[in-house]
């Protein structure tokens, strides 16, 4: 049975707007099938619960057509069983879909479902397949051919993908701006990053958290090929060294967020490269209103010294160590406790002076 409460609420909401009431005449609409397509499309755009939309598609042909034409964003993460079958049945009807979230708590999605998406949803720009442990490179090959307009792709935790799959995908999906490969140990290698650097020059955000096969060769390829990179998470990429950070400092002028948690090969040399690159770009940034680094995680980077990190902190005013802001994260670096941002120092200085009273 269709839960029509939300549909009815949206209908009432639209009927209260003068233009709809004048156009349609309230008395003329007695059943769902009487509602004109224009109004059905407006209702579809207002419904938040996508389960309601899917069930509504079973009511009448008008609803099915409205959903096919009007639904551009869909989340199926609420589906706890048989997600693949649901996707296979829905995808052919959703040819205007632009955003699709298929995040799962337990792995359900299979390659055939992604292949169906790729066959029908050619306008797809944003796809979330996170935690799809069952998917293989077959899915990436299908997306490469069927969804070349992808701008945002989340495949974090998809452990069965390979670097050759990523290489193939990026050869076709060249508009990618946001890519999440967190935990994709087999997929995120230097080979894959070289392909990303070669093919995805619009990339702005990349998550490589806990991809332990990533090395300097891959990160340097990214830095040279993706000059618009703004956010890069290298947490747990234990193989990288200062050379990676130096390349990013020199080649990615818009970088605002960098995660280096547990990258224990990182030394002061990397910190000073960020400072020096900021100095070179200061006049350009001033003209464009950019601030440089706004977030940096160097937790467990135990080779760093206070002088280098303080120089970095002084250079980037948006990096904060003060309570509640913490955009410079240094957990586990006991030798960096003396490092403070300007406002933390200012707050300390502004504490009221309390004179000591001596007993007579």
From TrEMBL:
<keyword id="KW-0833">Ubl conjugation pathway</keyword>
<dbReference type="InterPro" id="IPR006553">
    <property type="entry name" value="Leu-rich_rpt_Cys-con_subtyp"/>
</dbReference>
<dbReference type="GO" id="GO:0005737">
    <property type="term" value="C:cytoplasm"/>
</dbReference>
<feature type="domain" description="F-box/LRR-repeat protein 15-like leucin rich repeat">
    <location>
        <begin position="147"/>
        <end position="312"/>
    </location>
</feature>
<dbReference type="InterPro" id="IPR050648">
    <property type="entry name" value="F-box_LRR-repeat"/>
</dbReference>
<dbReference type="InterPro" id="IPR032675">
    <property type="entry name" value="LRR_dom_sf"/>
</dbReference>
<dbReference type="GO" id="GO:0051603">
    <property type="term" value="P:proteolysis involved in protein catabolic process"/>
</dbReference>
<dbReference type="InterPro" id="IPR057207">
    <property type="entry name" value="FBXL15_LRR"/>
</dbReference>
<dbReference type="InterPro" id="IPR036047">
    <property type="entry name" value="F-box-like_dom_sf"/>
</dbReference>
<protein>
    <recommendedName>
        <fullName>F-box/LRR-repeat protein 15-like leucin rich repeat domain-containing protein</fullName>
    </recommendedName>
</protein>
<dbReference type="Pfam" id="PF25372">
    <property type="entry name" value="DUF7885"/>
</dbReference>
């Amino acid at each position: 049975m269709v839960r029509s409460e939300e549909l009815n609420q949206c209908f009432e909401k639209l009927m209260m707007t003068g233009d709809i009431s004048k156009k349609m005449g309230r008395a003329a609409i007695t059943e769902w099938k009487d509602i004109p397509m224009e109004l059905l499309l407006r209702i579809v755009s207002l419904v938040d619960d996508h389960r309601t939309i899917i069930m509504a598609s079973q009511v009448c042909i008008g609803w099915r057509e409205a959903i096919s034409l009007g639904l551009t964003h869909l989340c199926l993460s609420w589906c706890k069983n048989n997600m693949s079958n649901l996707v296979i049945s829905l995808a052919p009807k959703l040819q205007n879909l632009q955003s699709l979230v298929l995040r799962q708590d337990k792995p359900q999605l299979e390659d055939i479902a992604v292949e169906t998406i790729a066959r029908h949803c050619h306008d797809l720009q944003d796809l979330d397949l996170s935690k799809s442990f069952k998917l293989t490179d077959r899915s990436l090959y299908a997306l490469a051919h069927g969804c070349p307009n992808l701008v945002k792709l989340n495949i974090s935790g998809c452990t069965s993908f390979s670097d050759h799959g990523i290489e193939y995908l990026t050869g076709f999906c060249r508009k990618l701006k946001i890519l999440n490969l967190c935990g994709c140990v087999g997929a995120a290698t230097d080979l894959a990053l070289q392909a990303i650097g070669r093919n995805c020059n619009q990339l702005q955000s990349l998550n490589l958290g806990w991809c332990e096969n990533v090395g300097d060769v891959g990160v340097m390829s990214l830095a040279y090929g993706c000059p618009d990179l703004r956010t890069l998470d290298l947490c747990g990429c234990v193989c990288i060294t200062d050379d990676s950070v130096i390349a990013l400092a020199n080649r990615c002028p818009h970088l605002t967020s960098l995660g280096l948690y547990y990258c224990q090969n990182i030394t002061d040399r990397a910190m000073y490269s960020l400072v020096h690159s900021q100095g070179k770009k200061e006049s350009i940034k001033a003209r464009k209103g950019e601030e440089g680094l706004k977030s940096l995680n160097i937790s467990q980077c135990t080779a760093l010294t206070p002088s280098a990190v303080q120089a970095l902190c002084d250079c980037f005013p948006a990096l904060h160590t003060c309570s509640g802001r913490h955009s410079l994260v240094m957990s586990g670096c006991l030798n960096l406790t003396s490092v403070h941002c300007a406002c933390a120092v200012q707050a300390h200085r502004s504490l009221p002076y309390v004179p000591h009273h001596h007993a007579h």
